[in-house]
Amino acid sequence: MFSSTTEFKNTFLKRLNMVCGKSFSESSERDHYQTLGIMIREFVSHDWIKTNERYLAAKEKQVYYLSIEYLLGKLLRQNLINLGIEETVQVGLSELGIDLSNLEELESDAGLGNGGLGRLAACFLDSLASLNLPGHGHGIRYKHGLFEQKIVDGYQVELPEQWLRSGNVWEVRKADLAVKIPFWGKVEGRTENGRLVFQHLNAETVTAVPHDMPVIGYNSETVNTLRLWNAEPSQFPIHEDILKYKRETESVSEFLYPDDTHDEGKILRLKQQYFLVSASIQSIIKTYRKQHGNLKELHQHVCIHINDTHPVLAIPELMRVLIDEEGFDWDLAWNITRQTISYTNHTTLSEALEKWPIRIFQPLLPRIYMIVEEINERFCGELWDKYTGDWDRIARLAVIADGFVKMAHLAIVGSFSVNGVAKLHTEILKTREMNQFYQLFPEKFNNKTNGIAHRRWLLKGNPDLSNLITDSIGSSWTQSPADLIQLLNYQHDSSFMEQLLKIKRDNKERLAEVIQSKNGIVVDSSAIFDVQVKRLHAYKRQLLKVLHIMYLYNRIKEDSSFSMVPRVFIFGAKASPGYYYAKKIIKLINTVADKVNNDPFIGDKMKVVFLENYRVSLAEKVFPAADLSEQISTASKEASGTGNMKFMINGALTVGTMDGANIEIHELVGDENIFTFGLSADEVLHYYQHGGYQSIEYYHHDSRIRQAVDQLVNGFFPGVYNEFEPIFDSLLEENDQYFVLKDFASYADTQKTIGETFRDQQVWQKKCLVNIAHAGYFSSDRTIKEYADNIWGIKPQ
Ligand code: 26V
Q1: Ligand 1 atom 23: residue of nearest CA
Q2: Is residue 661 within 8 Å of residue 774, measured between CB atoms?
Q3: Helix count and strand count (H, E) for the chain
Q4: Where does the signal sequence lie (predicted)?
Q5: Please, which residues bridge with residue 232 across strands?
Q6: Are 614 and 147 contacting, i.e. CB atoms less than 8 angstroms apart?
Q7: Mutate to test the pocket of ligand 1, among 312, 347, 350 (most ligand atoms within 8 A of CB)
Q8: Distance from the alpha carbon of residue 732 to the mean position of ligand 1, in angstroms
């Protein structure tokens, strides 16, 4: 479309007039952003339509990825890169006096997710399209994504996020494809031609309207679709309060739930889940019918993947369609359903496993509940045949028990594939958390180690490093990330290594500017940039890093002979609004930051920075500037982690426990190129089972620990009396459930080694290079190929 910048400029100016109804001289930056967005959509519309036609005609298998979260971030520059027109557009705009990066700033982050799970879904979409795979996302078009975080007086304050305030140029509303979703009401059964048929009566319906976003593949003609469903009123009732009805229906897609909420009581959350599932399945079936007619071979042409258990009602919903609408008998419907659905588990934390009380589930979704009951009864019958008399086991495995529907059990029983997200995580599922299911269905369990969209996290996020890599090994790595391994040949190339160092320095300086402008803190970019960015959770142990910072501070103050390489400790984290303890940790980080940063005796030896409102677009500035990646979860708790991979590919070294995908990073780079410490998963799980850990002993026997822990409550932080007592209590009264004190010494020793290693920049940079070279494995292209080949059975088209 634009083979030259002149052509681009001409089209841009014409479109600007049309889109904004203004002359160029009157137009604003927002007009320019809007115009460019619309031009890109126009530019891809041909390929978008062609892609769909191709899929329709080929009748090959398709996958539908159902996820309650998509953490997309900004799309403008990534779309330009994937289309191969970044350069043309950037030059063209600048000739018009427009700075592309200013336009990027105007775009809101699409923040429709909490953390790793939502970002993974976004990375997967990029890989599906870039690999020309027929895979489509379905999700909810939340009006408000994850809250915006402000730090006021050291405390987190949440503001509603407003990504749709100025519209969303990437979406196309398709009102003609709207579907209706029934809630409440009652189900009546009657016999028709000797067959029991069910009708859902007096339901309150919400209309789901699809808003489609193009998912543009990198250097490919494939444009897949992310379909986000918006909740709207169906026909307005005549007698009731119309405004109330409008409010109630729209509330279904109003807010993303933060991940701490104990879902059990939240009717609206269950409504969201069924809303997503029912709308998606209705739409999938409609498309399928057009292509293939009847549904007997659905599983041969369609795979429906559920991202965690949130969309698990896809199982009973598909059963409903097959039985009530298609007229299949139970066994046929069950066979088809079980071969259509696949499921990823993303956590073994018991508090995160979803269960819904029957008293909420049954009245809200009466027909779906009947089907779940039937699934449960038949499954328990099978269990009875296998484990006759073993009531305990049957009760533990049942889909419905103790007044609750257990969503993970439904997912395992109703799917053909259950996968974990890193080797250790899958092992823990098989041997511990889901062992009894594994014994029943060993063939269903498999591992798919997570990955990241390396085109966002390296190609887009770190352009200087990308250019250096391309200049050295060529550009094939953008599509074959394993080619990064060729970088190993440059370990002894001093010019290459110098450039690598310079790029890191420049990236650190850019982040230093952000820190200065946002936090008012001046940091020295020759210091170690030591970074922990992720959701705030006790198991991720931001506290371990804080206690270590307090220890270093104490050392500097008390021991004049103590010397250390200067460090900038950087944190970014949102705490769920209802997660009291996590919010205390945020206040603690900010309190420590105040104390350290304002102590003239400390000067540049260390600084502590809390970056407000951590999100995808900020993450893209942080990873390229990091020297050290903190992956310090209590072993066994972090299913995979994906931030660890983003740091690695940007040339940061990991300090980490043997947890999640850290284990695979270690396996690839070897002992020499990662800093591991702490208890192993087996040791942690052994303590949980058999006891034997007394945190108080570590407090008594390690004066470094005692001093820092006491400082939480002894007035060391002026003006925050009592504030950190809950943290103090979690460590001593509650016996430190996450082994912070137990792992402290090992962490401190490792950090000492890290400091010493950093002194020799040549040694350090070489380790960074080894990490980058091996990071190709963690591209989501590799992950998605594994899903495509081993679970979904889909092929490039
Ligand atoms: C949810 C909850 C809710 C209740 C309170 C405790 C709690 C703890 C964790 C979660 C998250 C559950 C699902 C999730 O986001 N898992 C993350 O998925 C990522 C992608 O697979 C993975 O890299 C992370 O390790 C994993 O935590």
Answers
A1: 641
A2: no
A3: 32, 25
A4: none
A5: 207
A6: no
A7: 347
A8: 26
Helix (H, G, I), strand (E, B), or coil: what is residue 655?
strand
What count of residues does the chain have?
Answer: 797
CA-closest candidate to residue 627, choices 759, 483, 452: 759
What's the rounded Cα separation, in Å, for the pair 468 and 177? 47
Q: How far is the CA of 62 from the centre of ligand 1 (A)?
A: 27
pLDDT tens, residue by residue, 576-609: 999 999 999 999 999 999 999 999 999 999 999 9
Q: Closest Cα to residue 536, out of 527, 545, 528?
A: 545
Beta-bridge partner residues of 446: 419
**In what helix (H) or strand (E) does residue 369 lie, and over which residues does it extend?**
helix 366-386
How far apart are the C-alpha atoms of 506 and 520, rounded to whole Å?
19
Domains annotated on the chain, with CATH: 1-58+75-107 (no CATH), 59-74+109-415 (3.40.50.2000), 454-680+746-777 (3.40.50.2000)
The residues, any chain, with a CB within 8 Å of residue 73's CB and separated by 6 or more, are 109, 110, 111, 122, 456, 615, 616, 617, 619, 620
The pTM of the full predicted model, rounded to 2 decimals, is 0.98
Whole-angstrom distance, CA of residue 25 vs CA of residue 31: 11
Q: Tell me which of 112, 114, 117, 353 to substitute to probe ligand 1's pocket, judged by most ligand atoms within 8 Å of the beta carbon.
A: 117
Alpha carbon 523 to chain centroid, angstroms: 30
Per-residue model confidence as pLDDT tens digits over 253-278: 999 998 766 666 689 999 999 999 99
